[in-house]
Amino acid sequence: HVQLVESGGGSVQAGGSLRLSCASSKYISSNNCMGWFRQGPGDEREGVAAIDADGSPAYADSVKGRFTISKDNGKNTTYLDMNNLKPDDTAIYYCATRRRASTGCLIRGLIDTWGQGTQVTVS
Predict the structure, then answer these.
(1) Model pLDDT for residues 49-87, shown as the tens digit of each residue
(2) Which of 31, 47, 59, 65 is the most exposed place for a label (fewest CB within 10 A)?
(3) Averaged pLDDT of the chain
């Protein structure tokens, strides 16, 4: 049973920074792509950042230059460093993966495993 557990959300003022973490069960992360999505009030869930199994990152245009995705395979943990946060970044952030794929984790329709989400509020 694959589990993804997010942590690190919270409230921050505009211009501030947060680091989100996603801890995954043993058989995920090193051979799978990982992604971060977010869903604001009344909005659809959208892809924010993803990292392929080979470490190649991809970002939504809205966060390029501000967010950085990384992973530590030894710790089975994926991170999302968020800098220069804006009120529009306010949302629930979800960690996600594809259990049998090493790429494509920025495409919502391909995701088969989700975390429970962590709230990020920027004021």
Answers:
(1) 999 999 999 999 999 999 999 999 889 999 999 999 999
(2) 65
(3) 94
Rama region for 65: left / alpha / beta (φ>0; ψ in -120 to 50; rest): left
| 48 pLDDT higher than 70 | yes
CA distance 101 to 53: 8
Q: What angle do CA 15, 36, 118 make, to 5 degrees?
A: 70
Q: Let me know: does 69 contact 77? Beta carbons within 8 Å.
A: no
Tokens of residue 90, six digits: 């306010």
The conformation of residue 109, written as its DSSP 8-state character, comes to: G
At residue 89, the 3 state secondary structure works out as: helix
- Cα 112 to chain center, whole Å? 14
One-letter amino acid for residue 83 of the chain: N
Report the pLDDT value the prediction gives residue 29, as an integer from 0 to 100.
61
- Of the candidates 122, 99, 119, the residue with the CA atom closest to the CA atom of residue 7: 119
Q: Which residue type, as a one-letter code, is found at position 7?
A: S
Rounded-to-integer distance, Cα 36 and Cα 54, Å:
17
